[in-house]
Each structure stands twice: as structure tokens, then as C-alpha cells.
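Data availability (excerpt). The following record was deposited with the supplementary files.
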Amino acid sequence: MAIKKLIEVALPLDKINEACAREKSIRHGHPSTLHLWWARRPLAAARAVIWASLVDDPSSHPELFPTEEEQHKERERLFAILEDLVIWENSNNQDVLGAAKKEILKYNQGKFPTLLDPFAGGGAIPLEAQRLGLKAIAHDLNPVAVMINKAMIEIPPRFAGKAPVNPDARASLLNTDWVGAHGLAEDVRYYGEWMKQKAYEKIGHLYPKVQLPPEEGGGEATVIAWIWVRTVKCPNPACGCEMPLASSFVLSKKKGKEVWVEPIIQNNEIKYNIRHGKCPKEKESVKLNKGASFRCVKCGSVTEKKYIHDEFMAHRNDTQLMAIVAEGKKSRIYISPFEEQSQIALSAMPKWVPEDQMNTNTPDLVSGRGYGITMWKELFTNRQLTALTTFSSLISDVIAKAEKDALAAGMENDGKGLDAGGQGAKAYGEAVGVYLAFAIDRASDAWSSLVSWRNTVEASRNTFARQALPMVWDFTEVNPFSGSCGNWSDACVGWIYEAIKEFNGTNLGQSEQFDAQTDCGLRNIMVSTDPPYYDNIGYADLSDYFYVWIRQSLRDIYPNLFSTMLVPKVEELIATPYRHEGNKEKAKVFFESGMLSACRQIYKYSQEKYSGYHLLCL
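Predicted structure:
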């Protein structure tokens, strides 16, 4: 009789779905906050599918459960284990995991299988396989995805249970029980703060405090954000003013704390004044529809999308500072812009910028490319580029410092880096550098000219609000050194610190760059994966946004992984017509034949022991 696994017979789907829905509200500590990836699968679903694929259904063992009633009773017992297993708060509950692992061993000859995910992406499946005791192997063609998986399943186990090496921790926290990756997380937090201090010494002058007006109590305050608006010259020859392309003039919609910007016309110039109270409806926005159509605040002329497009393509557009947001004792303080703040921002000149071109064959990926933006550096202001390149330049310094402190703390001096499998001081310093490089990627998501201001909650929105890069007409430039939205300590390093603490796997995982259509040599293993979504997401094109930064930080640590200037695209298994002369049928054939090849490889890997394989499509 063929053995049936639990997943083939029945699952407590309501409880699994409930856990998946609950997971969407988890932010701090969730692995998805380590680094952005598109179309991540819920951890609860991955955990459930892997476990239920390894545990036999009771009907497969009539010698143990001869009647349907006994089988039902045993199935309910297994359901109870699974229902506990998928709860987010039980992710690292050793009693719950222990019960789940016991069942896996029972039905797999007392051994934990090896699991391969050939399309690992954001890493949900390999991470949950590792959590359940399996040897997890993550393959992906995309180097950003490979690094995400390394940071989740490969690096933390090497340093599990180790105390932090930074001087403050060694002096004051020696008796702390450093479980899992908590020690590593503490060092990432410490050296991240060290980077912030060093960066402030270099570029702090570009982020000056602001003088508060008397009605706000006077004195100085730290700026949270500068809100800029893109402009073009009004098409009306009789007007000719520099018209703002504002999506909204409303800065705060909070009840009783409403704030808006009033554009004041002075000859052909527009000045901006902060006003409190509800914004008059006619002044709330000059944007007329979903596209790029705006009304001039001076003469009322309406621009068509083509005019805006042509002005941007000819680089006749500009930006103006529209408002300044400062930290108050109890709430945000909004200040009218003034020349000194604008000039300081515009004076920034980065020493290095990523000179890489966007993939101009996909105009739907970044709507800004339709407005003359063709290079990744053009998505950032000069001050943002200066901040990102300054923090990035400190990665090598922080690696050296962490290695030196690790040696002082007594860590082995094996001279091996992460790429060589090192587990001593050199590799540890590089590990700290990896996570802080991830913090720079998080910073690039928070510090771009495609970041908008959320006036309902008075905070900035990240660049990737969805799986594309839409044009933002009035954008937010956050202060990395503030204590509020988008800052380095909390929004970049802090979220990574919380995520690392949740990585408690002790069995070493493995993450490699590999094409799923090529035989990787593995046999007698389990395969579980979430394959690419046909033409729904251009992973390689999107991840270039992060690759240009992470490559700058980590190419000396992983030279082979970051050997290309941009993410490999030709071999990427998606149905993208532009890679096939714009022919949809050729793109379809490429994807379907490629998936067939990948499935044939999967069959080879699993055929000796696992007669089937699992394509996890959630």
C-alpha cells in the first residue's frame, strides 16, 4: 500500500489560514523585515506544508490504527500539533517545535531529511525547513535573494549561542544567556550605532536643526523630514510661473491637528506657508487625475501628461522645498521652508554614486523612466546619495572593528571569511558587515525621491509601496539622524536587529546562486518550492535597485556572487516579452520549457526516496 502523507488527506486549513492572516500584522521581528523581497509566502503556510508533507496520515498505518475512528482520533492529534506549530508566537517555542520534530523523525527512519528550494526567493521555505530540524538548501539565480537566504539560514547558525563581542556588552552583560543569534543581533545594533556616529561626523552638517517660530515655543528642533515638490514652468505663455506638481498640499489629516501648505504667488514665484486647520477643498490638490495632469496654482491652466513628460525629458523640471517637519515634544511641528535649508540640501555632493543604468526595456517597472530617469542614481537627491554612500563606505571599517573586537573577546583566529566557511573572528566581522549592508538597503528604500508623505499618520512611506516604482510628485526626504520615521537607528538597523533575534536555528543551512534548470547534483532529498509567477513580477529588474548598494558593500566578501554589475536577467525564468523581441508567445515558450526543465531536475533530486515533489503555490 502506498504511504499517504497527512497533506494528501486533510489539513486544519481554517487554523492555517488564520495564522497566515495574523502574520500580516507582524512587523518587528518578522524575517520579512530583514530585507525587502516581493511576493513572500507566509511562514505559517510554509511551515505547515513542510511538516504535513513529512508526517504520515494515520490511514497509511492500519496496523496501528485499524478503524476509521482510531484514524480520525490520531489525525486530530496531529492537527493539534500543527495548529500549535503555525502560531507566530510559537515560532521558537522549543516545546512546540520538539513535538513537531518528534513526528518527523518517527516517519523518516529517525533522520531529518534534506530540503531544497530551487527558487528560494525571500527564503520562507528554507527558513521553516531549518526551523523544523531539516538541512535547508536555498538556490536562486538572483544574488540579492541568495544573500537574504544566507542571512537567514547560513550565517546565524555559525554563531549561535555566542555572546556579543563589542566592548560595551563584554563589560556589562557577561552573565546574559545569549540564545540563538541574540549575541550577533546585539553586535549588529552596537556597530550600527557606531556607523551612525561616524557618518554624522562626516555629513551631519547636511542635516541642520531648524529654528522654531515663537508660536511653536522657539529654540531649535531636529528635522524629521523635508518635503519637496517637483515643478515645471506653466505652459501658459502669459503666466510662466514655476508651477508645483503637488499630489496634495495637506500635511496632516489628524483630527484637531490638521495642517496644510498654502502656495503664495509672488510675481512668477511660488512660496509656501504652513497653515493650521482643515485645508480648503480647492487648495487640497492641483493634481487632477491618476495620471500626470496638474492645474497651475497661479493662472489655473491645466497641463496635459505629454507636456509634463516633455519637460522632464528635456530636464526643464526642478524641485522646491515645500515644508519642513520637525520633532516636537508631543507632536510633529510643521515649518514653512526657507532658503538656508534649501541651500544646505542642494550643496551636498556625493563622492561616489552608482552609475548603473536601469533596464530601459521595461517602462512599466519604474514610471519615472517615462520622465527621463534612466539611471538608478537619479532616484535619489544628492543629499540622499551622500548619506547612502557615506554609510556604505563605513562597512569595511565596521568589519575590521568587529573582527578586532572578536579577537579581543577570545574568538578563534582561523583567518577564514564567510565565503570560505569561516566561523572565527574574520567571518564574524564579515557577518556583522552583511547585516549592516542590509541596513543600507533598507535605508535606500526609506531615503529616495520616490518616498511620499502619509498625511493620515504623519510619517514617510517607503519607496516600495508595491511591486513597482511609481513616480512621486511631492516627495519626502527623511533625516537619517533623527529619532523618527526612516531614521538609521530604528528604521534601518533596529528592524534588522529584531529580525536577527528570531533566527534560532542551530543546524547549518546553505544558500547558493544556482540556475534551477541545471543539475546541482543533489539526490534523495525533499524539494519544496514556490516557483516564479509567470510574468507577474520582474524580480531581477526590481532587485537591481538594491543590488547596486549591496554589491558596493559586500563584493569583497562574496566576490563570485557579486561578480556582475547588475542582477543576471537573461536566464531568469519569467515570461517577460521584452527579453524575447517583444514577442509574448516566445516569452511563454521560454517560461514553460524552462519550468519543464526545472521540474525534470526536481524529479531527479527526489526520485530515489521522495516519489513526489512539492510545488508550494500559495
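Summary of structural features: Confidence is low (pLDDT under 50) at residues 611-618.
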